[in-house]
Design brief:
This protein is an all-beta fold. Helix content is 0%, strand content 59%. Strands 1, 2, 3, 4 and 5 form a five-stranded antiparallel beta sheet that branches.
Length: 88
């Protein structure tokens, strides 16, 4: 059986808004220097995500874990707990 002939299909990528967010944060906790830069933890106090098909509350207790590198760039690991508008 001969393989089927492939054909090219052009698909233009597009972007759609998922949500916007508003986050209340506490003062940064400077943990100290690491081999990669300065470690900081920014506590999350609360907030909200709002979008066309998504509405959530940001619960307190999360944090943005940051390393401010020696070249001035920041690496960020965001740890948030969300509660959707239907309580999930």
């Amino acid at each position: 059986m001969a393989p089927k002939e492939l054909r090219k299909v052009s698909i233009e990528p597009s972007l759609q808004l998922l949500y916007t967010s508003s986050v209340q944060v506490g003062p940064p906790l400077v943990v100290g220097s690491t081999p990669y830069g300065e470690r900081r933890i920014i506590p999350i106090k609360g907030g909200a995500f709002e979008g066309p098909r998504l509405s959530e509350k940001i619960l307190p207790g999360g944090a943005d874990w940051q390393v401010i590198r020696t070249d001035g760039a920041a690496e960020l690991e965001a740890r948030y707990t969300l509660e959707t508008d239907d309580g999930a």
